[in-house]
Sequence to fold (313 residues):
Amino acid sequence: MKNQKKDKEQAFEIIVSNYEAQLLRYVSRMVYNFDMAEDVVQETFIKLFKKWKEDFVPSPQISSWLYKVAHNKAIDMIRKENRRINHQKNKAEYDKIDLEVFYKGDNDIPEKALDAAKVLNSLTPEEKQLVILKVYEKKSYKEISEITNLSTGNIGFKLHHIMKKMAKKLQGENK
Amino acid sequence: MKSQSQQKHIIKCSDIEPHLFDFIQHELGQAQATVISEHLKKCETCKKSLHELQESLKTLEDFGINKPPEHLTDNRKKKIRFAYMHPFLNFCYIHHVVISAIVVITTLLAIIFMIRNTSLIKEKEDFKEYPVHLNLVR
Fold:
């Protein structure tokens, strides 16, 4: 009984310490808010410990599952937040505040970073997911395919169009 | 059979362009990557497209979130651990409003049932005590 509890504790520590940083990084970019990101990651881990039927050993399967669940929860969170903001009718102010939170400690927010943030924010959640996984998380097409259930060919095709769209917008922002 | 140089000549920019992002990300096979790099050596238009893509990628990469949290706070870890170690208690904690409502309703129903039963028993006892009186009324 004592051993079982110890094993559970150990599994918990291994899983959380292995995946918390990457999930926090990913969700922070999805939701643009650190507190919300922590909420999402907390709920994701709770769901993992509730639903995962196999052993709690770090594996590509657990990683993909975590990204998938975190993404869905992040989208739910964004929808809820959007509804709340629409009620408050101060979205412009909200966006400004959020970007400042990201650059806490810096006196000036780099202009290029602001442009990139704006363009990234203008994407649909699905497009944003592909860009974040490829550009920031440096996942391969195969790994992205496991997370998104898209074929590798489709991922390349979509990313190409998204990047072209973003390049156009970024050039527009810089002019 | 067309010669290799003829085959290379047939490749159009429209065939190359959709694969430029894959090319930057090293997601193409060796053969495809060689065809694209050969094409890029000669084609200025595709070279420009490649450069634009690389620039956008760099801008995006520069937009690093300022020190995102690397760890969950202890409080959050405590909550996850509690949910994992004590799933039933956690369920009660999450659904405490519903569970409280069920407990209150059940208690109220139990009280009503008990009161009704007691009054029925009392009525029966009253009936036993005064049967003659009741007969007289009839």
Summary: DSSP finds eight helices and no strands in chain A.
